[in-house]
């Protein structure tokens, strides 16, 4: 059901997209709009725009389309009359769940639960997933501190006006370059771009350095190990310092690969050591798999590459999983109802789609495909950076979750636009990186279509 | 398409609900689960559970079902093949909107825009609506303070580690008893129940008293005016005090009727005066219509009852509007792209439903129906409280957005369960109130069904 290649009719954005952007500009800030899409005509790996341009999509709606556009399995689900009421009647899941909810969750989210985790809480997006995961961590941490879960009278009254001890000065440790969302709680752990943070009140929470490694990792293992050790030491220092400040670190949040921040990798060893530090200091370890989860690294969760039985206390997800949410260890489960709660608590119509997505991933062995395409992509990037050493460097990746650095931001931005006009939709990340975020149905031959066209673009620069 | 009355087969939760609750309990905290539902068989004002009980639903999924269950207009929309791709391909709206997005927004959200507001930003739930509204307010306020929108070098660097001046100590003033969501930013303005706030780090933001009025309002206008004046004075004091503390109030957030906090009303005069205070002190006025919006007060927005041309800088919505979001005045629009941004920025499939909901509201004159049913409901409540003065008091309401107080919390909770076993699904709010949150298709004869049964329940107590 895929098209056989890109097909360009205009430069992008074409005249119709420009017209619509102008129209929308009367209603919203449209500074971020790339172009308008024809989602009906989009298929598989190809996104079609309103001017009839058909582009190979290697960005997939900021990494959120799992199995391509208009996948027949998802369209079929829509035509099943038994599913209609799930779309039409959105329940308040926390109080009045539909009959099939436990089964659907078991069939979908629990079937891919990270090692050691038996409990999952659905949410509606990445931000509420992380915000509520933080809240679970704070509840757990305070109950540990108290030794019981009966708050004092002073806690009960002070919390109503945002004051300690009811609203304690707890913190979440995060990493420079990390991205965990943009609501104010999440934003206090996000440190990827100024534009996200400027002018926003925040919490005084510790920010550790994330290792800045040399690629390919195998070639620089000793230097990289030193850099990682430096960062780990800093993490411990910060935990101690913030405890002394009276703002103890209740949890550590980290991405298995820093995505928005520029596709920064670290070794499995780094994460195993960090996990141990979190244990040693009694902080919850929260792995944010919102962008890395769902199969794009060749395993369903990126943290599986660390090879651990007990990888974390909490793993959050969204994007390619279509629903947001987080897994947690039994002990992190909030002690009382209504502490982790909101009106919708997710959306069962997204769970319906997720069941089908997982079926397709299994039926079509998509994790193996991703591993295969990812190898071809990374090798292709290695060749291109050898061929254009003044332009490209630091090719890196796991599965198809790849990136490469460009000489500078301006050149990167120009390359992205030139590639787009030739039918390749790519995204940037960090200061000067290009990130690859294809769907799981991106095959080896798509890699070759990309490499050919990208080579042409580079040759012009 | 409605049923003709409740029909009860078991007490609630029945055996099947209990079984499913047990099953779900292995995966999640189920302390808040009331019972499991059969959404296929639910229709109009009636919610059917998995044990075949059919209840008149006066709570509607925490006030989030606008025109009843399985409304034919919404089901029809699902069978239109042109709509399928909107459900199957969720776009990153901020960068790659679908072709019909400007038209759909104009046809739906803009057609009901509050007075003076031409711009609307969709979001996915009430919390991200308020969080992003706060962010718009902070950007606007800081640019006013600066006199331009070019941040200093120090701001650019300090914001990356959550420190001032880049992350300034700005505050949002909120009201005791208010509810604006549960992500950490929203939660700092929420003050309705301990269980929401306890153990959560928060911001030192000012909390003003909300008027505690006597009902019926007409009978106590003088005392109530005094109480409102007291609260307004306190608001001004807090604004001055927080400015002196170095945490200036950038915005004031308020619900037109405090919903979760116990259905607390204030007079149009109170809100007009508060609006003036916000203008005088240069704070943005943010009206949270997440629960009050959508027609349940007899006008589309509750703030329309204030009769103002320029009611606010920002009005946020969610729940019955199916999509989240907020309207804003032109000057509140963020100055640069990507400052107000996330992966999905709403969900076009919810906009599709909203267009139909608005059509139904207009076609069936539902705002008039609400006014009519609301009058019958409030009069009925007045009669009941006259009849049971030891049990009931403080009946109040606007449209069908009504509430009544019960002697104490334990009696309130018992009444709710007894009513449920007789086929009336109601919700509590505040410490001892019962709230009425029917759909807009709740007609006068539904009011009478309710009053009859509720009378029977009261007679037993
Ligand atoms: S915060 Fe996640 S959907 Fe609103």
Question: Which secondary structure elements does this structure contain, and how are they paired or packed?
Answer:
2 copies of one chain form a homodimer.
Chain A: H1 15-25, E1 46-48, E2 54-57, H2 60-63, H3 72-79, H4 84-88, H5 101-107, E3 119-123, H6 126-146, H7 153-158, E4 171-175, H8 184-187, H9 194-197, E5 207-208, H10 221-244, E6 249-254, H11 268-280, E7 284-288, E8 314-317, E9 324-328, H12 348-363, H13 366-387, E10 392-398, E11 401-406, H14 409-421, E12 424-425, E13 427-429, E14 433-436, H15 444-459
Parallel strand pairs in A: 2-12, 4-5, 4-6, 6-7, 7-8
Antiparallel strand pairs in A: 1-2, 3-9, 8-9, 10-11, 11-14, 13-14
Helix pairs in contact in A: 5-12, 10-11, 13-15
Bound molecules: FE2/S2 (inorganic) cluster.
Count every helix of chain A, treating DSSP H or I runs of 4 or more residues as helices.
15
Unreliable sequence segments of chain A:
none
Q: What string gives the helices and strands of chain A in order?
A: HEEHHHHEHHEHHEHEHEEEHHEEHEEEH
Q: Give the beta-strand count of chain A.
A: 14
Ligands bound, unique: FE2/S2 (inorganic) cluster
Largest sheet of chain A: 7 strands, mixed
Biggest interface pair, counts:
A-B, 125 and 125 residues
Q: How would you describe the shape of chain A?
A: globular
| Lateral strand order in the biggest sheet of chain A | 3-9-8-7-6-4-5
Instruction: State the oligomer.
Output: homodimer
Q: What is the helix content of chain A?
A: 25-40%
Strand content of chain A: 5-15%
Kindly provide the radius of gyration of chain A, computed on alpha-carbon positions and rounded to a whole number of angstroms. Answer: 23 Å
